[in-house]
Amino acid sequence: HVQLNSVQSILTNVNNLEGELLLCEASTVYKYIQEDGSNRGTYGKLVCTNFKIAFLDDNSASDDNEPQFENKIVGENDITLQCVDQIYGVYDEKKKLLTGQLRKYPEKLIIYCKDLRVFHFCLRYTKEEEVKRIVSGIVHHSQTPKLLKRLFLFSYASAAPNNTDGRNQTVMFETLEDWRGELERTKGNAKYKAVTTNEGYRVSEKLPLYFVVPICVSEESILKYEGRGIPIWCWSCHNGAALLKMSAFPKEQDDSSSQMQKAFLDGIYKTISKPPYELLKTDDLSSSLPSLQDIQTAYTKFKQLFLIDNSTDFWATDVKWFSLLESTNWLEIIRRVLKKAIEVVECLERQHTNVLLIEESATDLCCVISSLVQVMMDSYSRTKSGFQSLIQKEWVIGGHGFLDRCNHLHRSDKEEAPVFLLLLNCVWQLVQQYPPAFEFTETYLTVLSDSLYVPIFSTFFFNSQHQKDTNMSGESLNTQSSPFRFLTVWDWSVQFDPKAQAFLNNPLYADKPKPDKSHRKTARFKHQRQLSLPLTQTKSSTKRGFFREETDHLIKNILGKRIGKFINSSDEPPNSFREFYDSWHSKPVDYHGLLLPCIDGPEIKVWAQRYLRWIPEAQLHGGGTIATAANILDLMEEVQSLQVKMDEEHSQAISGDLHSVPVLRNSARLSSLFPFALLQRQSIKPALPTSTWKDLEDEDDLVNRDDEFVDLSGDIL
Amino acid sequence: MKLSHFLNNSSGQNSDLLLFKFIHLSENAAFLTDKDVIYMCPFNGPVKGRVYITNYRLYLRSVENDPVLVLNVPLGVISRIEKMGGASSRGENSYGLDITCKDMRNLRFALKQEGHSRRDIFEVLTKYAFPQSHNLLFFAFANEEKFSENGWMVYNPMSEYRRQGLPNERWRVTFINEHYGLCDTYPSLLVVPYNATDDDLKKVAAFRSRNRIPVLSWIHPETQAVIMRCSQPLVGMGGKRNKDDERYLDIIREANGQISKLTIYDARPNVNAVANKATGGGYEGEDAYPNAELFFLDIHNIHVMRESLKKLKDIVYPNVEESHWLSSLESTHWLEHIKLVLTGAIQVADKVSSGRSSVVVHCSDGWDRTAQLTSLAMLMLDSYYRTIEGFEVLVQKEWISFGHKFASRIGHGDKNHADADRSPIFLQFIDCVWQMSKQFPTAFEFNEQFLITILDHLYSCRFGTFLYNSESVREKEKVTEKTLSLWSLINSEKSKYTNPFYTKELNRALYPVASMRHLELWVNYYIRWNPRIRQQQPNPVEQRYMELLALRDDYIRRLEELQITNNSKITNSSASSASPSQMMSQVQTHF
Questions:
Q1: Contact at 8 Å (CB) between B516 and B173?
Q2: Which residue of A has its CA nearest to B300?
Q3: So what's the ipTM on this one?
Q4: Myotubularin phosphatase domain spans which residues (chain A) (predicted)?
């Protein structure tokens, strides 16, 4: 029903990408400027392409507000189709959710975005014909089920065969060598091996082409249940203990087959619990963590707190802000996930046990926990390339179902769950608690979360490596069918020019000191510190007594189970977690060593940059963390320019003014929106709460008293 | 016994004492007693230690722990000392002392039942923690520390008014209160409208609670609009009027050539202002003041604030509420009160700045909420007050000289811990300042440590700065002659209190966002005693930024050197200094 031919000419003023097609448009659309709650706005054209919804300002001719942090792919007024969260129509001041076929067309369109922007478009001045076309077009293209091949990803890849090699130093884990490299890096190769069993996806379409298992696990067992019940290696700790994950067997109705599965599992456990393997602890994440459904429900409520229509809404919710926040449960989920990760770290680090994470498909909460554990324990994961490699390893190749979890195709709401966002939220907590420990900034994480909805990168648009591989060949569109070459999100130059990319790198990152002869002593000391962590262990074991430990050991071996479980494990000292946590926190932080997040209530915070950045009432003019960041960047630039001058001086070149300082960012214009946009508003009028007080129910007698009771009426008589 | 004497005579066992940082309390720090106790640490359980008490502090050093646990508590912070357990108490560690402090912590010591160890400690502590109740002087009067700066010189009212461009043709300085004859809780020097005579002032004083007439706090350099402060008018049930007061407010309105109405901010909730009529107070009614607009700012009284802080302490000490942290925090209302105070101050500031209108601020007496509002509004409007020295002036002026009743609100040296006059009004103000500095991390010259230090010495009684209720009493007690100023300590070590991110910006109004989305609990202050709450001191970002600053300065220095060498055409310059690339690598490892 959409006409595709009259298009290309109009697209000239759209900043369109190759392969982008105009689907429908409407002119004299009025876009409200959200900043001051007035009805101020601008006229322009609203267009919908196969990539995005865009508003083209009629007088966009010269805008001196050019943001320094421009995204080259998605502009300020662009909404990619996958970024649309919900669309509401306003009919006679009433909001109505728009989903499928429409009978009546609204006067106003409100678009809520997954990156938490809110757009208000007034259609009152638009021709009826155009209103119909644009509204149904937008709703159809952004809200109704889609075929995978209709994702813009494919149009873009076929129209713009790219040759950029954007891998930088990110390990993609697409090859056997990548896995072997990782084994070598973590010194896991003595006990674990990379296998090729899944070549041609013989084992399972859900598993990656190559993965790593304990050396003692045979090919037959891997093949037996399509990889279920097989411990798959994630990472090895410096002391040899490893983090493993396993996809569980589904609950079988048939008794005999479940018996067989049990026997199979027992066999596997037996092999991998024998020396040289460490003791094994298993943790069934589906019972020890909130369910995906809980996570989805919590996030849905949480994000709603930030999708704000107007100033009245903002201040009305402000009064009960903390209890609203708590009622979403989102921060509590973050806390529980972080706590779980610390528990796993404790087993690996202090108890020297292997930890096996179990989940039905081992591609959701397993990914969250294993990634967090690595971020906390492996300082490489806190570098940019290390973190990106980690995401490749655990999530992209690891088989997290991005397509379903983000519901990119609008196929089924049931599958939707913000699992990856949960990870980013948890990592953000660590970044804000220990800024010098990370090579990347919170802006990097925010941009990464935005990139989840930009369908020109393959990274977040497939459910598995198999799905990507099978859709690589361009058979359907072109006859010559050369395979698509997709972009990876890790090629940041696609979205940002070098200047903007500076915001992704943490200038205060505590670089790892290079091994130096004079530093050897401190290095050894550091090592000792790590080893000295199980300080309390010796204590507790003496308490438990030699004999008891011995019998435990004996019992375990007799039963063939050197396996403990997190839950109901009676032999574990109850406070071992707390002891470990407290003992770590009582020592100075080593930014290159183990990093444990603080998880007490006051320490878990809302990721303000991601969630508050578009809310005008919440803007801090000239303030926020970005004010410090801008200062640091300025200073970095100054130091760099001084370095250049030094070089010039050394080469005796003519130098300019000694104290010329790079152009300072006008911090008064910066707000919490920065670097994502600059304020439009010129006058700084403070935001004032409109509804402030609620009753202090229980303190009435105090409330009614005066500061000091003195009868003043006597004074003047 | 004098401490130095004691130290000289101390046997090996007590050589630990030499490690005390008995800040230059000098020879006068009398050493009173020492005892073996068990400190009932709420975080680490019972800790064996030795406690030492001087006329300034209680100092405890653990004897077995590694690392050594140290408590260092100025006696001034003690609010209440209670005995726990009696001679017949059985349970382990059930006999001893329970000490409640004003700075969000409690201390429990278990003692041996034999001997009179508890009685001795209790008596010494009670005497020196509550000198006012025992006819003793505050420690500040015995303190003989020496500082390179003299903090008493920081605030000179005349030069502060001159800085503001006062007096001018519309505002004059009056000495009518030189001997505190007009108002005994005001400073001696006041700025009033040029067109109001001293006689007028006296008449107005009769109509204002405790004679606290409207006087100028701050004048906007461009709009000439002013912030005035005062107490409530004595309207009473009968709705009394006073022509002089009415005329006086009109003179204020006219002083900046303003045609629009004068804005009066009554800090109280409307109902409380009405209720005050019953006791002779009230507010400016529309009939009597047709040229004024009155707004209520809904800030609650000192009792509500005290209860709120008590609730806050309950959820953070000794343990932080585990589950439902956010709703527990909300139920204390502490941040909500902060929000209201900030909102009020923003309104005042905005009215003066963009509204170009003069404002009058009052509550009941004009020494609690009024001081909060005027000083915060001034902090928003005048960047001078955001410097270390400027902030000291602000506190000295709006709080100390205008009679915020520090002695009553804090209860310095007074054993009456349940006194209804006590209230954390000044703490609340400092919290508001912290919220602003958190929202604008580059706008303040001072850092968090500065604010915490001020609060610590609000209680410590080591300095005379916050002692007594008003300037008239302070003068009588000769505070500036006999005690030291807190600003001496701070200004002698300014770098410790300086925010490295501070970027000087002149005359930019700074409006914080008074939304719960941005207000935070000041963890580093309220929960600082909890070892589980990590205090990264010094702040790692700050520290690294300072390293970068040092690097820049080093470069500039080297570059200057290089240019001199180059200019004088000495060609073998490379021999004298390292090449830049070499330096860079040094820098990286250094980081």
A1: no
A2: A703
A3: 0.89
A4: 173-611
Give the position of tokens 């039942």. B113
| C-alpha atoms less than 13 angstroms from C-alpha of B231 in its C-beta half-sphere | 27
Q: What is the pLDDT of residues B106-129, one digit of tens each?
A: 999 998 887 778 888 999 999 999
Least confident of A99-103, B232-236, B306-310, B577-581: B577-581
B230 is in an annotated binding site: no
If DSSP codes are grouped into helix, strand and coil, which group holds residue A704?
Answer: helix
Helix (H) or strand (E) holding A361: none
Listed residue (B281, B278, B251, B254) closest to B266, CA to CA: B281
Residue B549 · residue A615 · CB < 8 Å: no
CB contact under 8 A, B573 and A650: yes
Close Cβ partners of B303 (under 8 Å, ≥ 6 residues apart): A702, A705, A707, B420, B423
Characterize B130-168 residue by residue with b for buried, 16 or more Cβ atoms within 10 angstroms of its Cβ, and e for exposed. bbbeeeeebbbbbbebebebebbebbebeebbeebebbe
Cis amide leading into B318 (omega within 30): yes
Angle ∠(B336,B513,A699) on CA atoms, nearest 5: 10
State whether residue A702 sits within 8 Å of chain B by CB. Answer: yes
What are the backbone angles phi and psi of residue A695, rounded to the nearest 5°?
Answer: -65, 145
CA distance A597 to B261: 55
Task: State both tokens at B400.
Answer: 């100390």
CA distance A80 to chain B (A): 28
**Parallel, antiparallel, or unpaired: how do β-strands A78-80 and A232-236 relate?**
unpaired
d(CA A345, CA A596): 9
Q: Give the DSSP H/E element, type plus range, for residue B326.
A: helix B325-332
Rounded to 10 deg, the angle between the A625-650 and B580-590 helix axes is: 150
Record: contact A687-B511, CB cut-off 8 A: yes
* A637-667 per-position pLDDT tens digit: 888 888 888 888 777 655 444 444 444 455 5
Nearest CA in chain B to A324: B327
β-pairing, B359-362 vs B226-230, is: parallel
Cβ pair B234:A586 closer than 8 A: no
Q: Is B400 annotated as ligand-binding?
A: no
Dihedral angle computed from the Cα positions of residues A234, A236, A241 and A245, in that order, rounded to the nearest 10 degrees? 0
Give the 3-state secondary structure of residue B293.
strand
CA distance A474 to chain B (A): 48
Question: Helices B425-439 and B448-460 meet at what angle, rounded to 10?
Answer: 170
Answer whether A612 touches B (CB < 8 Å).
yes
Is residue B101 among the annotated active site residues?
no
Contact map slice: A 455-514 vs B, CB within 8 A: 507-508, 510-511, 513-514
Is residue B308 within 8 Å of residue B267, measured between CB atoms?
no
For residues B406 and B468, the answer to whether their CB atoms sit within 8 Å is yes
A590, A701, A712, A717: best mutation site toward chain B, by most B Cβ within 10 Å? Answer: A712
Is residue A667 within 8 angstroms of chain B, CB to CB?
yes
C-beta atoms of B441 and A712 within 8 A = no
Lookup: tokens for B364: 């009941």
Q: Which two tokens stand for residue B116?
A: 């009179």
Phi-psi region of B541 (alpha: psi -120 to 50; beta: other; left: phi over 0): alpha
Q: How far is CA A16 from the centre of its chain?
A: 27
Q: Which two structure tokens, joined as six digits, stand for A158? A: 């076929």
DSSP A11: G
Contacts of A655 in chain B (CB under 8 A): 563
Beta bridge partners of A26: A46
* Local structure of residue A625 (DSSP, 8 states): H
What is the average pLDDT score of chain B?
Answer: 89
Question: What are the backbone dihedrals phi and psi of residue A441, each rounded to the nearest 5 degrees, phi first?
Answer: -105, 175
**Four-CA torsion B388, B390, B391, B397, nearest 10 degrees:** 150
